[in-house]
Amino acid sequence: PLVANTTGHQAFVINSDGNANNNPYMEFQQDGTRRAFIQFHDTDNTLKLTSEFGNLELRAAATAGSDSDTTYLTVKAGGTISASGNLSSTGNLDIDGTSNLQGDVTLQSDLSVVDVNATNITGSEISSSTALFTTATIDKIGGAIDFNNEIKNFN
Q1: pLDDT at 129 over 90
Q2: Is 141 exposed, middle or buried (0-12, 13-18, 19+ CB in 10 A)?
Q3: What is the pLDDT of residues 30-76, one digit of tens each?
Q4: How distant, in Å, are the alpha carbons of 14, 39, 102, 116 from that of 27?
Q5: What's the whole-number mean pLDDT along residues 100-107?
Q6: When comparing pLDDT for 124 and 1, which is higher?
Q7: Are 3 and 11 in contact (CB under 8 A)?
Q8: What DSSP string runs through the chain?
Q9: In the structure, what pLDDT confidence band is assigned to residue 99 with cuts at 50, 70 and 90?
Q10: The dihedral formed by the CA atoms of 67, 70, 72 and 78, expressed in degrees to the nearest 10
Q11: Percent of the chain with pLDDT over 70
Q12: What is the dihedral of CA 59, 63, 66, 70, to 10 degrees?
């Protein structure tokens, strides 16, 4: 193994001299076949973490200071992304495609929905303490919805 001992902060450098568009990378091989690489791509100033034969996982300790490694984000071959734990975004979180939300969903601000197509909406309660639910077109719902404390049955 390659071991770098240092008393400073910088222990390892990959420096690609010459042309500014060299796209330097570090490659991981098994039996002479490249399996993955980490590359700085000069053209679009992007750090690329690439697995060519499987999934990518982002792992961290389950609690600070422990040496356990728990998977919190997985990018599977083919493009499926799964995350566990709390997902937090300070900007927009755009989801393109089908989403499967399990557990509680809490909105701290307004919800804007462009189009909802559902054959089944299930759950025990849809509530809001401060927001107004002004317009809705809902098909194929069994049960009741409470609009401003007025029960509307849809059976």
Answers
A1: no
A2: middle
A3: 999 999 999 988 888 899 999 999 999 988 888 888 878 888 889 99
A4: 12, 8, 38, 45
A5: 73
A6: 1
A7: no
A8: ------SSS--------S-TT---EEEEEETTEEEEEEEEETTTTEEEEEESSS-EEEEE-SSTT----EEEEEE-TTS-EEE-S----SS-----S-----S----SS----S----S----S----SS---------S--SEEEETTEEEE--
A9: confident
A10: 120
A11: 66
A12: -30
The three-state secondary structure class of 121 is coil
Among 44-58, 73-87, 96-110, top mean pLDDT goes to 44-58
Tokens linked to 102: 């399990």
- Both tokens assigned to 73: 């984000």
Six-digit token string for 12: 């390892």
What letter represents residue 127's amino acid?
S
